[in-house]
Amino acid sequence: MKSYFPALSLELLSTGAEAQSGTVEGLHRELRPGNMSRFGNGQTDKVMPAVLASRVPKPRLMNVASLVDCQVGGIIVIKP
Amino acid sequence: MNRRDLLKSIVALPIATTLGCSTFTSKPQTASTSFTTMNLVFEGPFIFFMDNPQVRVFAPKVDGHRYLINNANAPESTYMLGGVAGVGNVQKTHYELPKGADAFRLSASQLHLALNNEKTPFFTFVLPAPDRVVALSARQAEIIDAFGNRRSAVMPTSYAFVYHVTDPAALALTPDTGWKPQSGAVSSFANLVVAAGLPLDAQVLQGSMRTPPLLK
User: Fold this and answer.
1) B39 contacts in A (CB within 8 Å)?
2) So what's the pLDDT on residue A58?
3) Which residues lie below 8 Å from residue B43, measured CB to CB, with a gap of 6+?
4) How confident is the model at residue B133 (pLDDT cuts 50, 70, 90)?
5) Which of A32, B6, B60, B166 is 20 to 30 Å apart from B156, CA to CA?
6) Chain A closest CA to B204's CA: distance in Å?
7) How far is A34 from A36, CA to CA, in rounded Å?
8) CB contact set of B146 (below 8 Å; sequence gap of 6+)
């Protein structure tokens, strides 16, 4: 993202859990924050088996709390 | 015709007339929805370049990311939304952001930010200035802000661009991705979600990503 604004020096060090911050009228239930529509399954966050997921080739430990930590946000650039 | 037949015909006449009128004046089974408001939701790492006369929203190309419109994979393109209008001037757009989100709302002039036009995003949305921009979800974040200060902030992860619908019949995305305003609509509110990011299974395979590759 930084490459779109080469002069931008903003850095993200770490993030916490996602939470609702606002709402607008008329949103469909499945579109409300926390429903993770970007994954296409319309499901909410859930606890998964910590050792083995069906698509993982071999058993491994997963940090459940960080499953979605690589989901990042956007930046708004206003002019002027 | 005897008296009995005459009575039968008199009794039957209003019924036949009513049925006949009913047939000719029947209304369509499905009335078209009269949309008044359009919520365009962006989830994920987008860049919102709030310029006049049009706002541009970019979804950077990132390896492994999926790009969805209305919950379906969508092709790389520049999209426009018809049938809506905003405030006309992006300076008048109203922002509803959580406290601490100022770190992610940057002034191009203050920070001397110039858009690198050589970059080719996956999605570009060219839109009117929205009536409102509302952060729907956010994360706490530790950042080094654009002024070089390390601090805690709140990073919005999804935004709603709210428009008023000017022409419900023209409410459509161009090029067409199959989205219809009726899908996901709530009464007079049309909803469309555009999302970018890693699919859940990819996140599992990659394991913990405590330091997101946001600003590479």
Assistant:
1) 24, 26-27, 31
2) 56
3) A37, A38, B137, B157, B158, B193, B194, B195, B196, B197
4) very high
5) B166
6) 7
7) 5
8) A8, A9, A10, B103, B106, B111
**Size of the A and B interface in Cβ pairs below 8 Å:** 269
The answer, yes or no, to whether residue A61 has pLDDT greater than 60, is no
Phi, psi of A64 (to 5 degrees): -60, -35
Residue found under tokens 């008048």: B92
Identity of the residue in B68, B138, B162 whose CB atom sits nearest the CB atom of A21: B138
Q: Tell me which residue of B211, B178, B182 sits closest to B79, measured CA to CA.
A: B178
pTM for this entry: 0.75
DSSP 3-state of B86: coil
Cβ of A3 within 8 Å of Cβ of B157? The answer is no
Could you count the other beta carbons within 10 Å of the beta carbon of residue B43? 27
- pLDDT value of residue B81: 97
Least confident piece of the model among A73-77, B17-21, B70-74, B178-182: B17-21
Q: Given an 8 Å threshold on Cβ–Cβ distance, is B216 in contact with A71?
A: no
* Confidence band for B65, pLDDT divided at 50, 70 and 90: confident
Residues B128, B84: Cα–Cα separation, whole Å: 8
Residues of chain B found within 8 Å of residue A14, distances taken between Cβ atoms? 141-142, 210-211
Region B121-134 average pLDDT: 97
